[in-house]
Amino acid sequence: MYFLEVTGRGVMFSGRDMELLCRWRDEGATAAIICRGIKEAVLSMEEGEPPRGVRSCQGWIEREIESARERASGGHIVAPHEEVAPEPAPAPAPPAPVEEQTAQPAPTNPYEPLLKDVLAKIEAAGQACTEDTLRAAYRDAWRATRALLERDTLPDPYGALAGIEDALADGYFRALDQQKQQAIADAISADDPAGLAMMSPSAREEHLAARRRSFLMREYGLPSLLD
Questions:
Q1: How far is Cα 60 from Cα 43, in angstroms, rounded to an integer?
Q2: Using one digit for the tens of pLDDT, what is the confidence trace for 150-183?
Q3: 116 and 68, same structural domain?
Q4: Residue 10 sits in the same domain as residue 66
Q5: CB-based contacts of 157: which residues, under 8 Å, 6+ apart?
Q6: Region entry Disordered: which residue ranges (predicted)?
């Protein structure tokens, strides 16, 4: 259709024309490049003597193909199927000099001996415990103490350990069956029933928690973390 438009002449492509078109296509020439070559051929020929086929435009088409290759390669004409050697990669920059620094010792927890001693107590008591529900209380206490050991600063280690000891006693007591819990409560109440009755609810709860902790240490082997 384009050939008819620019030449005014209908054409049936010959076998040679088709061979040229296939070769140019394999070489990477686009239809636009071939059409430009045909147009250049028409403009270069005398008026009234348009090209009779693609073969008649071969010289102009191939010049357009070469020009397109040159533009694509930045001025270097790349022949069909020619392999372009890659540019060598730039040499890596030398590493920057490393300034020598005095190795600083890693900060250590000043209460490490105390906390490790507490961990050992919890581990020993937990291993001696045969009931898994009770061992869960030891596991929680161990994790809480380990977290203290991993801290760089610890403003009040004894207060933190007292809180862990309270939580351990409370968790252990709650893991006991109802019968054992009631027996402990009865034993505590029998020691000072009048005194408990005179306490406020909050004071009574604190007193009972402390008494339960002492009872568990004495009767069940619960470790004291602050001794």
A1: 10
A2: 888 878 888 899 999 999 999 999 999 999 999 9
A3: no
A4: yes
A5: 111, 114, 115, 148
A6: 84-109
Are residues 213 and 122 located together in one domain of the fold?
Answer: yes
Contacts of 226 (CB under 8 A, 6+ apart): 158, 161, 162, 165
Q: Are residues 68 and 115 in the same domain?
A: no
Q: 91-123: per-residue pLDDT in tens? A: 666 665 555 555 555 557 788 899 999 999 999
Query: Any alpha helices (H) in the chain, and if so which ranges?
Result: 2-7, 15-26, 31-44, 58-72, 112-128, 132-149, 157-175, 178-191, 193-198, 201-219
Q: Which residues constitute the domain of residue 188?
A: 111-220
Q: Are 117 and 125 in contact (CB under 8 A)?
A: no
DSSP type of residue 106: P
What is the spatial distance between Cα 123 and Cα 115, in angstroms, rounded to a whole number? 12
- Residue among 105, 16, 33 nearest 69 (CA): 33
Residue 34 exposed, middle or buried by CB count within 10 Å (0-12, 13-18, 19+): buried
- Is residue 79 a part of any domain in this protein? no
Cα–Cα distance measured from residue 207 to residue 191, given in angstroms and rounded to the nearest whole number = 12
Three-state DSSP state, 54: helix
- Report if residue 42 sits inside a domain: yes
- Residue 92: CB atoms within 10 A of its CB come to 6
Using CA atoms, how far apart are residues 48 and 25, in angstroms rounded to an integer? 30
What SS3 class is residue 2? helix
pLDDT of residue 84: 46
In a domain, 196, yes or no: yes
